[in-house]
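Sequence design from tokenized structure. All designs in this work follow the same two-part layout: the structure record, then the generated sequence. An example of the structure record is given first.
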């Protein structure tokens, strides 16, 4: 596995390092606004960066550094959370407007694989794909919702949560 670290500093600069030999792979400007979220694809080949103005940049990560795959307007607000599918082909993004799922191709497409009933009306805070990509979990202020990707239908919902500090994790 790759051991690559991305960090954003107070000047909105993103640094990317390969930890095995402490090589600085890249330093890039965070974009047109303050960086709100970073996410690596599971294989470490892509890095998504969201800024507070809703811009999302997807970068290819290699031993030579970063190369931009795409930049697009994901919404009016910066992402609170982002997560790639296990194969890196799409990116789930949650912000104050709701949840959006995008392809990660050079020409990103808005995908709607889930039953979207009620999605936009909720303020999702965290989102995670299962390790095999068959489920997507999202947390709002009080509920955990789980979708089966193949059907696009919610299969589980529970309101055991309190506060906005919960984060889903998978084994």
């Amino acid at each position: 596995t790759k051991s690559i670290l991305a960090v954003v500093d107070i000047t909105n600069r993103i640094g990317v390092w390969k930890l095995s030999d402490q090589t600085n792979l890249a330093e890039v400007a965070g974009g047109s606004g303050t960086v709100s979220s970073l996410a690596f694809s599971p294989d470490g080949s892509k890095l998504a960066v969201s800024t507070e103005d809703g811009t999302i940049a997807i970068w290819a990560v290699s031993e030579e550094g970063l190369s931009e795959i795409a930049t697009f307007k994901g919404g009016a607000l910066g992402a609170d959370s982002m997560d790639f599918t296990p194969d890196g082909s799409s990116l789930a993004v949650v912000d104050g407007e709701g949840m959006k799922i995008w392809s990660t191709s050079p020409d990103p497409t808005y995908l709607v694989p889930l039953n979207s009933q009620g999605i936009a009306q909720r303020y999702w805070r965290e989102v995670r794909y299962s390790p095999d990509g068959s489920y997507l979990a999202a947390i709002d202020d009080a509920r955990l919702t789980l979708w089966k990707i193949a059907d696009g239908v919610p299969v589980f919902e529970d309101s055991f949560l309190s506060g906005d500090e919960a984060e889903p994790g998978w084994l």
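The chain is about 0% helix and 50% strand. We note this feature because it recurs in several other targets discussed in the main text.
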